[in-house]
Amino acid sequence: MKNSREQWGSRLGFILAASGSAVGLGNIWKYPHMAGQNGGAAFTVVYLLCILIVGLPILLGELAIGRKTQLSPVGAFNKLSNLSNWKWVGFLGVASAFVILSFYGVVGGWTLKYTLFALSGGFDSLSGSPDLSGQIFSEFIGSSLQPIFWQLIFMSFCMGIIIKGVKSGIEGGAKIMMPLILIILGLLVFKGLSLEGGKKGLEFLFKPKFSDLNPSSIVMALGHAFFTLSLGMGTMITYGSYLDEKQNLFTSAIWIILLDTFIAMLAGTAIFTIVFAMGADPSAGAGLIFVVLPTIFPQIGGGAVWGTLFFFILFMAALTSAISILEVITAYFIDEKGWSRNKATLLFGGIISLVGVFCSLSLGEFNITALLNISFFDFLDELSSKYMLPIGGALTALFILSKWSVKTFLVELLIGIKELKIEKSLLISILQILLIVSSLVVGLIIINELFDLLFNQSLQKMAGF
Ligand code: TRP
């Protein structure tokens, strides 16, 4: 079976696929409003530091584990730890993938619906009325059939790509979608900057406002650094497992980080220049994209086209991330159970779609977690982004530190690097420190969340901030 394992067709293809996983709703929807509200450039500086200190070492770790073993997470941890309990970190990854894709697919469906809504000129009737827009959006997501219909279409796209395999499916898709995302975002930025008053948006996003930066924004920046690079559930282990020995993992990781960050900033620029030029409310937070933007696109020249393009990139960004989530599950059944790609994709894509149906319904009348006082949708979102992913990431760092050893990790990293300008022992110490810091920091975030959950009291509050 090993010999028939697929590999990426080219280095560029791999970088586009991995950054396709990283670039998702987190970049276009979450980053802009988080940065805007938490100190602009001050937040971005903290976020970049978190990416370099916490994100980079774990990203490198995941890629190296995948390439070394040529296996997806469960098999990879099993192989490197001689069948010990570390394999549960792999299982945790597969479980996280299952949980995340269930609700990610629902939001993916919304992006499709809104692309067509914009295309049909439907935003015209919402022009300048955020209340009406908000009402239409909540009616849509709370209704039973419509969002499920779009979710199932989104999931079919996702399964269609995964069935085609690594090279023609995932890589082929990323090679088309990632350049399109960049080009269209570039056009939107251009449009936004050309609008009168648009430049004020740049100030909102990029001017450092250190007074708005508080401890909770730092925790937020940390969590986001982690989420945006798709770490903690073995996505990058899986994608790394399709790499061959010639690649320089370090420069690939830097490329992934640069593309991910660049796209988040482009998205923020496009959104806030348009929001400010039209005098809309920049602090609308999470509702900014689906509620506020549809009310302002009709007010700019060619608004239907710009609105359609915007939601279309949101759809593509969600799709390139969703496929990387499904691939973690598919690869597990192929590697460990010897299933065919078709069987694994269709069966688990189908089951996840079914769980997604309950997520979607939970925003309306039928909520299976009603007893917990939270919608099933939010339950899965919180469970994964607050607990499962950080725990998975911290355990990956601990695995490298305590089982695999930083030395062997470095040997894997150095393959493909022709010339080394730093002492090896120094590199080992740097990696060691970074991994210890990232597992501690991520551990702290998890403890903080648990405190918040159990005692409704976060550590920052207790420390008197
Ligand atoms: N990185 C994605 C985003 O920014 C979200 C995400 C988190 C993800 N973990 C993932 C995507 C794992 C794929 C796989 O939206």
Set out the fold topology.
Layout: H1 11-22, H2 25-37, H3 41-69, H4 73-80, H5 87-119, H6 130-142, H7 145-163, H8 166-194, H9 199-206, H10 215-228, H11 235-240, H12 249-277, H13 293-296, H14 303-337, H15 341-361, H16 376-404, H17 406-414, H18 424-455, H19 459-462
Give the SSE order as H and E letters: HHHHHHHHHHHHHHHHHHH
Radius of gyration: 22 Å
**What is the overall shape?**
globular
Multimerization status: single chain
Number of domains: 1
At the fold tier of CATH, the topology name is Hydantoin permease
For the termini, the CA-CA separation is: 56 Å
Largest sheet: none
Description:
The longest helix is centred in the C-terminal third of the chain and has 35 residues, at 303-337. The protein has helices at 11-22, 25-37, 41-69, 73-80, 87-119, 130-142, 145-163, 166-194, 199-206, 215-228, 235-240, 249-277, 293-296, 303-337, 341-361, 376-404, 406-414, 424-455, 459-462. 75% of the residues lie in helices and 0% in strands. The protein has 19 helices and no strands. The chain is mainly alpha-helical and 465 residues long. α9 crosses α12. It has a single domain, classed as Hydantoin permease (Orthogonal Bundle). Residues 21-22, 24-27, 227-228, 230, 233, 235, 321, 324-325 line the site of tryptophan.
